[in-house]
Write a structure and sequence with these properties.
Layout lengths: L8 E5 L3 H13 L4 E5 L12 H6 L13 H6 L2 E4 L2 E7 L4 E6 L5 E5 L2 E4 L3 E3 L12 E2 L4 H14 L3 E5 L3 H12 L3 E5 L11 H13 L3 E3 L4 E6 L5 E6 L3 E3 L2 E4 L3 E3 L2 H5 L23 E3 L6 E3 L4 E3 L4 H15 L13 E5 L2 E7 L2 H6 L5 E7 L12 E7 L6 E9 L6 H9 L4 H5 L15 H11 L1
Parallel strand pairs: 1-2, 1-7, 2-3, 7-18, 9-16, 10-11, 10-16, 11-12
Antiparallel strand pairs: 4-5, 5-6, 8-17, 13-14, 14-15, 19-20, 21-22, 22-25, 23-24, 24-25
The structure holds flavin-adenine dinucleotide.
């Protein structure tokens, strides 16, 4: 394909975190590379993570979620084609089939290198009524605009959120701020399944304190509509919840069908299998972000952790290698953070629950401690939970819950995990202190000291 052209051609499928990181990085490494990104929606380089805050009104306009516009990319020599969907990949001939969603036309175009960055799709549980008017998922800018338009035009009063992961929790806060009576259902016995139950309970209490009705261990079975096809209620194992608006936040699945149909190997949870350079099994084809696997440093193997923090890094590595450089992705320890109302929660590594499920010997402590010197006015105490291996004292994971900004302390513990620190190492960390920032013994050190006695 490339022999007839002078400049080599990098095609990117999906123009958000991973795709546009790859494009920018490849451009920096190779000024002569022709780079074209195809994006199915009308936007590129948007921050899906800001969608709950667009609904809440904290972000004023959808356009504010866009980090860089097509015009800005064009000035970098990166062509972005929005409203263009790649419908097939032919890895033998190095071509892709593209559908122009505005014109309806289709064409075929060639590549020398290909980055697949198709992301992850919201899981829509198969249940009656899932297609009714007033039922939403949240992934794209268009999804956020659709929810906001519905709120403005239909003036719903009651919302039901199916799923209590971080998107559900963040949207619950947004709905309450928009004046909706909000109910959250989850089939699991706790909210925020990637946290231990004791920390998740703090989030459930915070949601309830702010008027959200939370029903866990309660599977949504169907959505009822009226004769006009509009949502009216969610029926669950435990009851029937009236609703004018339903948001499905039931998790994300790798959007990997396009790759699979092209013979590209899939791995964990249907995500595209990649090596540390984000290379797929097909030479010249890379995958990054929510459509791809992630190497987990603690599990010492591939996992599926679809997060924006990872998508950007993986995209950068894919772009480095596609642009002729050499890059490797360092792996994750499963660090995540979220908030609702006044409570922030962070997690890194293995929860106690996950460690037990993996058959690992694990011990834990959970402490509550002031986040400032006792005489200094502050936002209140924080909870730190540490999980470690009793055989060698190695830290396995940690969770923090407390006033919103304090949860970011989880990054100290993520750094500790990245470097394989033990509880004893944690005790010795030289963490900063001044009364407006922390007590003289930082809560992380207090937790490590308590852990060392166990
Ligand atoms: P995506 O962002 O999914 O982008 C992939 C793009 O590819 C999509 O725009 C899609 O339209 C396009 N595409 C797919 N198939 C094709 C095709 N065949 N042809 C053309 N285009 C195609 N992560 C965090 O780390 N922190 C957070 O706080 C956080 N909050 C979030 C809140 C919400 C509401 C959501 C939805 C996600 C949040 N995330 C968060 C996750 C984060 O947004 C994703 O991990 C990140 O966007 C993944 O980037 P990506 O580029 O891999 O995929």
């Amino acid at each position: 394909m490339s022999s007839s052209r002078e400049a080599k051609r990098l095609l990117i499928i999906g123009g958000v975190a991973a795709g546009m990181s790859a494009a920018s990085r490849a451009r920096r490494l190779d000024p002569d590379l022709e780079i074209v990104a195809y994006e199915r929606t009308g936007y590129v380089s948007y921050g899906s993570c800001g969608l709950p805050y667009l609904i809440a009104g904290v972000v004023r306009e959808a356009a504010d979620l866009v980090a860089r516009t097509p015009e800005q990319f064009a000035r970098q020599g990166i062509e972005t084609r929005t409203n263009h969907e790649v419908t097939a990949i032919d890895t033998s001939n190095k071509t892709v089939e593209v559908k122009d969603l505005t014109e309806g036309s289709e064409f075929s175009t060639g590549y020398d290198k290909l980055v697949i960055a198709t992301g992850g799709s919201p899981i829509r549980p198969p249940m009656p009524g899932i297609k009714l008017e007033g039922v939403f998922v949240l992934r794209t800018v268009e999804d956020g605009i659709a929810v906001n338009r519905f709120l403005a035009e239909e003036r719903p009063r009651r919302a039901v959120i199916i799923g209590s992961g971080y998107i559900g929790v963040e949207v619950a806060e947004a709905f309450v701020q928009r004046g909706l009576q909000t109910t959250m259902l989850d089939m699991l016995p706790q909210v925020l399944d990637n946290f231990d139950a004791d920390i998740a309970q703090l989030m459930q209490s915070e949601l309830e304190r702010n008027g959200v009705i939370v029903s866990v261990d309660d599977t949504a079975q169907g959505i009822e509509g009226d004769t006009a096809g509009r949502v009216r209620a969610v029926v669950s194992a435990r009851g029937r919840y009236e609703a004018d608006l339903v948001l499905i936040g039931a998790g994300v699945a790798a959007e990997s069908l396009l790759a699979q149909e092209a013979g590209i190997r899939l791995g964990t949870k249907g995500a595209i299998a990649v090596d540390e350079g984000m290379r797929t099994n097909v030479p010249g084809v890379y995958a990054a972000g929510d459509c791809a696997e992630t190497y987990h440093l603690l599990l010492k193997g591939p996992s599926y952790v679809p997060l924006g923090s990872t998508a950007n890094k993986q995209g950068r590595v894919a772009g480095t290698n596609a642009g002729g450089g050499e890059g490797t992705f360092g792996g994750v320890v499963g660090t995540a953070i979220t908030k609702a109302f006044e409570l922030g929660v962070g997690v890194t590594g293995l929860t106690e629950k996950a460690a037990v499920q993996l058959g690992r010997a694990a011990r834990s402590v959970s402490i509550e401690h002031g986040s400032r010197a006792h005489y200094y006015p502050g936002p209140g105490p924080i909870r730190v939970k540490l999980v470690w291996d009793p055989a060698d004292g190695m830290l396995l994971g940690a969770q923090i819950a407390g006033p919103v900004a304090e949860a970011k302390r989880i990054d100290v513990l993520a750094t500790a995990l990245h470097h394989g620190l033990t509880i004893e190492d944690l005790q010795r960390l030289d963490l900063s202190y001044a009364p407006p920032f922390s007590p003289v013994w930082d809560p992380i050190l207090v937790a490590a000291n308590v852990a060392a006695k166990n």
